[in-house]
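Review form for a predicted model. The reviewer records the input and the model, then writes brief findings.
Reviewer: anonymous (R2)
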Amino acid sequence: MYPHDPLARERMRDILAPLFLEVREVEFRNGLIFHGWASPYCEEHRAEVERGLRQLPGGFCFETLEGRPYLTYTMPGPLAKPVNWPLHALLLAATVLTTLVAGAGWRFDSFLEAFAGSLLGAPGSMPLPELMAALVAEGGQFSLAILLILGSHECGHYLMARRYGMLVTPPFFLPAPIPPIGTFGAVIRLRSPMLHRRALLDVGLAGPLAGLAVALPFLIYGILHTKGTYPEAFAVVKDWQQGGSVVFGDSLLTWGLTRLLLGVPPAGHAVDWLSHPFAWAGWIGLLVTALNLVPVGQLDGGHVAYALVGRRQRHVALFFLGVLIALSGKWRGWLFWAVIMALLVRVAHPPVVIEGVPLGMGRKILGWAAAAIFLLVFMPAPVRGIF
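Model under review:
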């Protein structure tokens, strides 16, 4: 059953009719997409048309396909919920708090106990302004870095989806009162389907590229400012098999950067990524990028793989799930992630609305470059000493 009442649909047709020479209507659960060849009137009065479309509740996009100007307008249905800005603000505030606590190296229950004591004026407790100032001083660098990295990733997706006129929510930040990260990440929710492979590739890649562009400067700065110099920079964490410590692993990129900037660690030692908050945030940013670029289902990597090879993406996904299961011998967490990916994000990517839109050579090169980036940032064993 189409979610709009017939009168609303007819009114929108009347409003949009002068803008199209040919138009196709695509129904989906939360609304309706009008997509077609833009009329000469639409082209001649583009600025005026754009101002008018911005007054409507949906999203729109002008693009050139096969040398012709096309317009897409996405009309939300009555089942589409408005953006819940208070919820987004509350989740962001909570994530700021949990990342501050994680960055300060405090246990969250200990912080809550100290906060309650300060709030109630318990004997021996630190005044509340001093407590919060200490929290920001100790955890502020990590909180700032990780929120900028995660926020840039999701805002990349959000802005590109809006560029294509899609219905999409702003980022939901996910707090986690668990050190030493303090967050489960951030997500957006797409409320309208991907129109074609070009949009799929652009939206899928915008997040990882934006996040990586922010994570790398933090990572490099943190490596250069780790506590101690060679070989002391490596002395704080001994090999997990000898000392039982938790060691955070390397990708090809971090392996190369640390050896270039710090030197080769002595035998039985590893880089302590926790030694500088920016290094730690950058390391997490690379891990998040790698997880998202796994070419499974509707992960970013699944978007890119489907844009490049179409329905054969399913075979690519099955291969990489097999790789993750094989790597569970190095880190058992990969088995958990393989199950989560298979059950929650599925294996095969759903089809786009219009399959025939070509990517073009530039986007194909960018898509394969993303595959190379995935290989550079992928960590065969992100953590050793636990799991």
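Findings: The chain has two domains: 6-76, 85-221+282-384.
Further findings: The longest strand covers residues 20-28.
Recommendation: see findings above.
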